[in-house]
Amino acid sequence: MAALYYATGRRKTSIARVWIKPGNGKITVNKQPIDKYFRRKTLELIVRQPLEHIGEIDQFDISANVCGGGWSGQAGAMKMAIARCLFKVDERHKKTLRDGGFLTRDSREVERKKPGQKKARKRFQFSKR
User: Residue 101, SS3?
Assistant: First the structure.
């Protein structure tokens, strides 16, 4: 039986659960091919970044389950989860993945809207008279 590795990634309010196994580079997201799920090429590139960084783009089949947030957050969560899986596959990749910034959680969240303001920081127009 081939090895199956699992990892979780988070970004904004998105959570990605990723399973990775040796294969030929097929990526499925929520039981759909990646090009059908992420309709923009840029999001596909974000997901594939860790694989390209270590030079193993066609070595693994990836299956992911993502929920929460929007397209960008989900792609970022998948990127982190894939990097964590690749680290579990071979611990020699740790330095390269760490230097590329793939193992660091991007903790930026949306700032809440404040009362008496239009948005989080934008105020209503001030009228002197």
Answer: coil
Judge whether 31 lies within some domain.
yes
Q: Which two tokens stand for residue 98?
A: 């760490």
Dist. CA 60–CA 72, nearest whole Å: 23
pLDDT at 88: 92
* Sign of the dihedral defined by the CA atoms of residues 54, 1, 88, 12, in that order: positive
Nearest to 103 by CA among 8, 15, 6, 3: 8
3-class DSSP assignment, residue 91? helix
pTM, to two decimals: 0.89
For residue 74, report the phi and psi dihedrals to the nearest 5 degrees: -65, -40
Our count of domains for the chain comes to: 1
pLDDT tens per residue, range 80-105: 999 999 999 999 999 999 999 999 99
Contact of 83 with 20, CB cutoff 8 Å: no
Asked, for residue 55, whether it belongs to a domain, the answer is yes
